[in-house]
Amino acid sequence: MSTRILVAAASFALGATLLVAPATAAPTTVASSAPAQYKAAPIDWGKCKDDFLIDSGARCGMLTVPLDHADPTGPTIKLAVSRVKHKGQKYRGVMFTNPGGPGGSGTFVAGYGQFVPKDVGKTYDWIGVDPRGVGDSRPALSCDKRILKIGTRPPYDPTTGGILARWIGKSEDYARDCGDSAAARLLPHMKTTDIVADFEVLRETLNAEKVSFYGFSYGTYIAQVYATLHPERLDKLVLDGVVDPRGIWYESNRNQNVAFEKSIKGFYRWAARGNRDLRLGRTAAAVEKTYYRVLRKVTRNRINGVGAAELTDVVLGAGYAAFLYPEIASALSEIANKGTAKQARMLYVSQNPVEPRGDNGYAAYLATICTDAPWPTDLNQILADNAAQHEQYPFITWGNGWFNAPCRTWPAPAAPAAVEVAPYAGSVLLINETFDGATPIEGAREVRRRFTSAVLIEGVKGTTHSGSLSGVGCVDNKIAKYLATGKLPTRKSGDVSDVRCPRIPAPPTGLAGDGHDFEANPRITPLG
Questions:
Q1: Buried b (16+ CB within 10 A) or exposed e, 149-169
Q2: How far apart are alpha carbons 202 and 200 in whole angstroms?
Q3: What is the pLDDT of residues 462-497, one digit of tens each?
Q4: What is the pTM of this model?
Q5: 174 and 406 Cβ atoms separated by less than 8 Å
Q6: What is the second-level CATH architecture of the domain 43-143+186-247+424-502?
Q7: Rounded CA gap, 67 and 86, in Å?
């Protein structure tokens, strides 16, 4: 199967997934996130619009939930949901899913059961959800559809006072636009705890005593908070691309800057092996030099509308997924050797269309990470942090910093601190590749420490983010066995990975096609 990865051009956060409360803030403890007195109306399941869901046999509908779960009799909103029901007599329960983000549309993941080996996935009801404010849920957030429009953004590296002033202004303007937007009433209610409460309403609506959860990237953090607030409601957990609960969210973004510097090296090595066709350099170091030479070139003068910010965003995709290497290398080769950027332009525009609600994923991403925990408000501190880190980790530090910069003046209050993810004794299967840039493997190790029965599968030396069910038998067959029997691989003693599997392989080297594969594989949002 070809993993549907959400490649949002600003894929910086695990989407995102990444901030941290000040050291002086005490952890937030939430006793319950879905008041029992609210009872949603049954879902009217009907035809889906998405071709993948239709082909998967899904049905779609809308779930009504409170805008504010602390006020269950107050205003309500609607969430888009999808379901692929189990097939056959064997039924193992409900499988909740989330593909990452925050801000990623999640209805399509209901079709993922078909990719679990040995038809095990078909023994569950797979449920997809567009989280509040996202996709087909209503209202959907949008602040400025042109915010990521090609040709409108300066280079990320603020080498002049003019560039710095433009980025500060763009960040403040976008935050203000979100506060003035038609769906601004959502902004105080976009925290992860709100999303968990929505899932609890959905569980009750489906009459499920317990549910299982398959989370990718930010979806792994939703599952962690779910396990903290409602541990008695969970059966099996599969968490792929695991968010570190200690870094919600400022420090997590800073950790990404370090990790992406490592993951992109895999792309440089791959491109060097294909130098005969790509002509980017015979060694990884030479390819890296070519990238920065091309980056300087488009910084001075845009090519086909592609400037430094757009090129950085396109190449960042290679830091997320090895299967995107050919398309991205071909686009980089075109600029380096032909002086045109038609492929890079197509790749960027395909992920950042200027259309109504075109910024929906970005707006929803910020609405969550800016309010899950406090964000620094001292501009000088933020600039100093980025400048210091850029010296050692230049690949994405400034891009990541500006992507998250609206949090400094975000128009909705943040929680006093992030939820403290509690120890959990239920069975959990964790999956992470060694050099995952969006969710560094140390996050998976930290969750393994807290989830005392969890088992960690490491994709050794891999650089792909949240790539399970992509055909690596060592990983996918263990997922199937766990979902079929509840039996995990043996947990080892010590702070180690329990199973070491081959990484998701990169495609053969050489020139790629026209960018179709990149466009057809949506799941990278900033975390992802």
A1: bbeebbbbbbeeeebeebbbe
A2: 5
A3: 999 999 999 999 999 999 999 999 999 999 999 999
A4: 0.92
A5: yes
A6: 3-Layer(aba) Sandwich (3.40)
A7: 31
